[in-house]
Amino acid sequence: MRRASSRPGPLRPWHERERCAKLRSISGDCSNFAHSPIKVRGKTWPTTEHFFQAQKFENASDQEELRRANSPMLAARMGQDRKRKLRRDWESVKVAVMREALQAKFSQHEDLARLLQAIGDAKLVEPTEHDDSWGDGGDGSGSNMLGRLLMEPRAAAR
Is residue 86 predicted with pLDDT exceeding 60? Predict the structure, then answer.
């Protein structure tokens, strides 16, 4: 009879809610869509999604329009609008922009920083077959950049 391992596998915060229910459902709290306003670059952003999507664009008025979007879903949709002028360097800076957003979120919201600490050393994974850059590609072959970036504030707090 094979004994179950007591060592946890990767924590998949957005889909395996039962694994994180005791942590007030990290899927909601740590999501870029969660209402946890951040102050970055002299402005308050409703969510990290608002900030991230707005930084894609050169034009300050486009950025402000995204900052004022009524929901993170709307900001995400607006961020896909290619009628707006995309920054030329976006592909080379997008990870740094997400890092900046997440660092702001977890340094400005102590409850969220404690939540990340409570997870311990579990590997955070964004399991999605639709994204092999920010997520794991659904089969673990993706780079899981969002999961990796979420682990940075936790490591920095130690």
Answer: yes
Helix, strand, or coil (residue 109)? coil
For residues 19 and 154, what is the distance between their CA atoms, to the nearest angstrom? 18
> Letter for the amino acid at 107?
S
Structural element, H or E, at residue 45: strand 43-45
**For residues 111 and 84, is the Cβ–Cβ distance under 8 A?**
no
Prediction pTM value: 0.81
pLDDT digits (tens, 9 = 90+) for 121-156: 777 877 778 888 988 888 888 898 988 898 888 777
CB atoms within 10 A of CB 70: 8
- Dist CA 102 CA 44 (whole Å): 14
